From TrEMBL:
It comes from the Eukaryota. This is Plant/protein. Residues 47-103 form the DUF3475 domain. Residues 314-405 form the DUF668 domain. It holds the Pfam family DUF668. It comes from Thalictrum thalictroides (Rue-anemone).
Length: 458
């Protein structure tokens, strides 16, 4: 039985577990302070604070997505959505495996960043976070200590969220300060040219920019900007363990626990050990506790396989996800608008369509001739079309909206510090069957075209 240890905080527990096999830790209570004492002062994050805050916000977002409320929403609502069931799969087990894989890969991405930050730490143990991450996935220490309901876990996640908030405020405050300093330079030029100088309350402006500089200095101290690499990596490591512990509880049927000898196994053996295959209507799904390791001594990080679950018969596999989402949202906008679509708008919409969808729309439009539309004087015809289009758009448009939102939330060029739960890829058009999707979109486009022609003729 392992010796029981009492750590002052969760971060110390993580590091302690990673060292439990080392001779230096035989007398843990005696050696603990010497092991965790920094050999030199750890540098602060500085400008790296903003990229770190983005990763930290994703970690907080992932934790929130695993709350009882959000997980219940996934089980009872998301996997049962009409669009998801029709275009992707009615097999809820398959959909939950997709959700599990996406969350695990999000956690792995956060872990990779923490490992990179760890290389900048002065503490030699924090430099080897990838070893700690691998030990966690191998089950080499007790995850019960990281229960999401524990006060220590709530305290850790609260710290992460506060740092994200403070760093986000620092980012916006720095942007404001840059604008004010640009204005300050213009004011100085105006001062030197009396004839061009507008009427400005210089004292008030100086007071505002002085206050803004003080605010930035304060935020640099309390945000991630002023935190050491040691402190930041310890805190994020705690958050990662908390999220992983919750993942194992929420998605226990879909996470295969690796065996301890896997650390020393070859990559080819790891594939056979970690992968659990599922055949579902021709689909092949891969489920495992994490991505396939990239090296012999590392089971924590590796290749990301979620996007490869979308075969060539899906929208994502065809590379049309964003394109078709924009088509659907454009049609939805015209349906909700009281004004009819213009000729240029109709032409722009047509050019957005892939070749296969253009052919499908043309073949369907041949069934509705202009003569038939002229002879029909019953408004109930257009009302029937509108009702049918709204019914399809009722489940298709939300998937298109979630597609755009998913990409915006994961835009690497955007400073996104929003810690709220994110949209899952299974809620988008990415895994949708291309043939079914194009048929539905074609129905909407043909209906919109007929409505516009009918209203023009009458």
């Amino acid at each position: 039985m392992a010796t029981k240890m009492k750590f002052s905080n969760m971060e110390d527990f993580i590091i302690g577990n990673s060292l439990k096999k080392r001779p230096l830790m035989l007398d843990r209570k005696k050696n603990r302070h010497s092991i965790f004492r920094n050999s030199k002062i750890s540098p602060t994050l500085g400008i790296l604070a903003f990229e770190t805050a983005k990763v930290m916000s994703r970690l907080v977002s992932l934790h929130k997505s695993l709350s009882d409320t959000e997980h219940s929403k996934l089980l009872k609502e998301i996997v049962k959505l009409e669009g998801v069931s029709y275009l992707i799969s009615k097999d809820e087990d398959y959909l939950l495996k997709l959700a599990c894989m996406e969350k695990m890969e999000d956690l792995d991405r956060a872990g990779i960043v923490v490992a990179r930050l760890g290389k900048r730490c002065s503490n030699p143990d924090l430099k080897n976070f990838e070893r700690i991450y691998s030990d966690m996935k191998l089950g080499l220490f007790d995850l019960n200590n990281f229960s999401a309901a524990s006060k220590e876990a709530q305290k850790t996640m609260g710290k992460l969220e506060r740092f994200v908030s403070d760093t986000s405020e620092l980012y916006s405050s720095l942007e404001s300060l840059l604008e004010m300093e640009a204005s300050e330079r213009k004011i100085m030029q105006w001062k030197n040219n009396v004839n061009l100088a507008p009427k400005i309350n210089y004292d008030l402006f100086e007071a505002k920019i002085s206050w803004q500089r003080q605010k930035v200095r304060h935020l640099r101290q309390v945000s991630l900007w002023g935190q050491t690499f040691n402190k930041t990596v310890r805190l994020m490591a705690g958050g990662i363990c908390i999220v992983y512990a919750r993942l194992r509880v929420a998605f226990s049927p879909y996470i295969v626990k690796p065996t301890r000898h896997m650390r020393y196994a070859s990559d080819s053996n790891l594939d056979s050990l970690c992968i659990n295959k599922m055949e579902n209507g021709g689909r092949r799904f891969v489920s495992k506790s994490g991505p396939i390791p990239s090296g012999q001594n590392n089971v924590g990080f590796g290749g990301f396989k979620l996007i490869h679950q979308a075969g060539p018969s899906t929208i994502g596999g065809s590379g049309l996800t964003l394109r078709l989402a924009k088509v659907v949202l454009t049609v939805d906008k015209y349906m909700k608008s009281r004004s009819s679509i213009s000729d240029s708008g109709r032409e722009d919409l047509y050019h957005m369509l892939p070749t296969s969808l253009k052919r499908l729309v043309k073949s369907k439009l041949k069934k509705f001739t202009t003569k038939e539309l002229e002879q029909s004087g019953d408004d109930s015809l257009t009302e029937g079309w509108k009702e049918g289009l709204n019914r399809i758009l009722g489940w298709l448009a939300p998937m298109a909206q979630d597609t755009i939102k998913w990409h915006m939330e994961r835009n690497v060029e955007k400073q996104n510090f929003d810690p709220r739960a994110k949209v899952l890829l299974l809620q988008t058009l990415f895994f949708a069957d291309r043939e079914k999707s194009e048929v539905a979109i074609a129905e909407v486009l043909v209906g919109l075209s007929c409505i516009c022609k009918y209203e023009t003729l009458h």
